[in-house]
Amino acid sequence: MSGLDHVRLRLDRIRAAAAAIDPVFLDTPAMPCPSPGRALGSSITLKVETLNPVRSFKGRGTETVAAEAAARGASRMVCASAGNLGQALAYSGARRGIDVTVVAATTANPLKLAQITALGADLRLHGQDIEDARLLARELSEAEGAYHVEDSLDLATCEGAATIGPELVRDDPDLDVVLVALAGGALAGGVGYAVHALAPGAEVIGIQPTGAPAMALSWQRRTVVETDRIDTIADGVAGRCPIPEVLDDLLVMDDVLLVGEDAIKAGMRAVYEHAGLVTEPSAALGIAAVMEHPARFTGRRVTTVLCGSNVLPTDFARWVLEP
Question: Which 3 state secondary structure label does DSSP give 100?
Answer without folding.
Answer: strand
